[in-house]
Amino acid sequence: MDSVPGRGRATLRDVARAAGVATSTVSRVLSEPGRISPATTAAVQRAVQELGYEARQRTPAGPDAKPRAVALLVPDITNPFYFDIIHGTQEQLKAAGYTQLLVDTEESADVEESALESVIPSARGVILAASRLSTGALAGAAGRVPLVALNRNDAGVPAVLIDPGYGIHQAFQHLVSLDHSRIAFISGPAQSWSSQWRWQVFEEAARENGVDAARLGPYSPKQTSGAAAADALLTSKASACIAFNDLLAIGMLRRLRTRGIKVPQDVSIIGCDDIFGADFCNPPLTTITAPVEQAARVATSMLLNRLGGGPLAARQVSQLPTHLTVRESTGPAPLRR
Is the distance from CB of 119 to CB of 127 less than 8 angstroms? Predict the structure, then answer.
């Protein structure tokens, strides 16, 4: 009989105590054989036999057996760009009766893949924001769980894209009108799909406007990377740049001020996304404004439609336009001596 002397039937906690592990580890050993180390598995199995523990029979798991939860994976929870995504998805999910599971994947494809493995068993659907996964890994995940990607469109999965095209072309028209003839793109992470897309649009706009284009980077999309990016910009001899995101641009403003370089008198800076605080910079940042919260709501609606039994074509893609917001970090190109 599965019992503990003086206490009746053995519990999962009894097994964990006897094996010297956490109750969650016991649960994983019993429900997911092969996922825990052999030594730990053997210790748990010995405790189970000694205590005569028998797990309660459960109804086989299926989609309806999962809690009403949707996982949102973002590369960096401290990046203000993702604040509106988190808010937009959470409000939409809450209204539909779902709980949001928020995961920070630390700008790492490995962490993201591991996190997906952890949440897929307990989430009915997944929203991936700016996924760093390989194309194959993203497609594989979409085959295991209802999934919508935000700002990623190379794996044949449903996607919502913030289209940089209009905003970048406006930025070039703005800079050309100020007599800038060499413009640099401060690129984001090497594995960022949206950074590659922005560079393609950047090159196209440069050709159309007869402008000399330079690509600098890659850089981590953080303020701390702005110093290196600013130094590279000065070396490139470009008189203006468009940064992958506002955080990089803000970090560049700080570095340039430290070096005694005036913005926009000596060099012009444009960011991307128009995050909270972009207009509080010194000087206030000219940036490409993105409908971030709207994109999050559209992605959530697409996923909820599928979870509700509605149709969702494998190649369903929604694109939302950007536009340029001019502030004080851009000005006329400096006179050449």
Answer: no
